[in-house]
Amino acid sequence: MIIYLTRHGQTTGDIENRYGGDYDDHLTDIGKQQSAQLAERLSNKGIGLLFASPLIRTKETATVIAERLSLVTNIFDDFRERNSYGILTGMTKDEALQKYPDQIQILKDVRATVEGAEEYASFQQRIINALATISQEQVDRIAIVTHGGPMRLIFRDILELGEIDVDDCAFAVLEADNDTYTLLDKSGITIKKQLS
User: Fold this and answer.
1) Are 27 and 59 in contact (CB under 8 A)?
2) In terms of pTM, does the model score above 0.70?
3) Which of 7, 85, 115, 172 could join 89 via S-S bond, C-beta 3.0 to 4.6 A?
4) Inter-residue contact 47 to 74 (CB < 8 Å)
5) What's the rounded Cα separation, in Å, for the pair 109 and 131?
């Protein structure tokens, strides 16, 4: 099976410089344009199923893709973003720094957990299980609209390729074979720190 693992477009929280995570924001006009460009790039790939996280920004991105590919969007709850920011969620970064400077320090370790956030181990298991479940579908090619956090975890912990930067509407092409995943291609994703 081939999996097109994609990220949603630009959001209102991005331009307002907010801590996102499971903050449920909308696409901007630019995000909608990015989604249309992504849909066009995916239009000739033979994708038979489309999945999306339940958050608004991924559903809005998936809707654009679904219309272009004549598919229905299937909501897959476990591909939602990690609640990485806990009590910081939805705050502007300036406001959070003034109110919770100690929690901001914790964010420097991707596996650490700020107050009220989802534990990294729980998030990791959720994404591993979600990817395994999706891989059982009886189609040759699927697309998943998800978030930067799940994509980073897949590169870090499943593909073991290291840390990445992920642009809006970036995508990775993975081959799934019996719980083994191979990166075939990527667009808008930069591997910035290889695992040793």
Assistant:
1) no
2) yes
3) 85
4) no
5) 24
